[in-house]
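2.7 Reproducibility. Because tokenized structures are sensitive to small changes in the input, we list the exact sequence used for Glycosyl hydrolase family 18 protein, including any N-terminal residues retained from the expression construct. No trimming or masking was applied before prediction.
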Amino acid sequence: MVEKQQRETILVNGYAYPSIGPETLQAWLPDLTFVSTFSYGFTADGQLIDLMDENIIRAAQPAGVQSLMVLTPLDSQGAFNNQLAKALLENPQAQDQLIDNILDNIRTKGMFGVDFDFEYVLAENRDQYTELVRKARQRLNAAGYLVTVALAPKTSADQPGLLYQGHDYRGMGQAANFILTMTYEWGYTYGPPMAVAPLNQVRRVLDYAVSEVPPDQLLMGIPNYGYDWTLPFVQGESRAEKISNDEAIARAERYGVEIFFDEQAQSPYYYYTDENGADHVVWFEDERSMQAKLALVSEYGLAGVSYWNIMDYFAAGSEVLREMYDVAKV
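Resulting structure tokens (single pass, no recycling of outputs):
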């Protein structure tokens, strides 16, 4: 008699803005361990800029889903401000004040922890950022709370570029409870048409990540959307339209075009011509691409996955997740 293979249980995080539709959030909750509310801000002296996320927290609790507050150095235009991050990271007193405020917020709102998402951190502030996360974990873990950090999709320790130089995988693996790899946005709004998360590129990031961080501390980022580019692509001028996976599928049906599948990227795409005669190409996620990504969790021994983001529900993707894994509730 062959024993039934035990299903793996994984952690699943989903990022959400407070503007998420109630029905969309309810559809996602059975498949989530954490919901990360995006995003809280802060001032240079460590004051917290609140996020009105009570609607998410209230809905998540009865479903056994724990809420994490996402902390970002965003400016008033919604762009990452590394000068704000620099001011905080070079001021130990401001950091202590910020951690105090994070703890107060988590206790007051009944949340589970904090997710640090500082992007474009200056190379000179790299170690200070790691130290901030380490101090936060020390304080929050002692109070029973969790600290996670979202990191750029690096493939080597000394990878050049502003997105990468301020993130220390090995240091953050020691500083935080979990690392969320932002393994998406190869295809993006202002870039040339390509898969949002090509599997071959995701593998390169994971190969590096597991060399620096224990795999059971890693959550792999998965995109829950696609892009529609008008052709020809013109660098500096073209701007792709971000669309849900369901809309991508519906658009292909509406124009009666064939959906292709790129074997290297393990991602679907198609071409169409709109009513005005303009040519388009669309890259998105479907059951096949989701299955290919989710299989990496078992292959690499990862803790789980993190969806950016859950503002649209993709039933087919959730079905693939349920077929492959059980979702942990903590």
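The CA atoms of residues 36 and 68 lie 5 Å apart.
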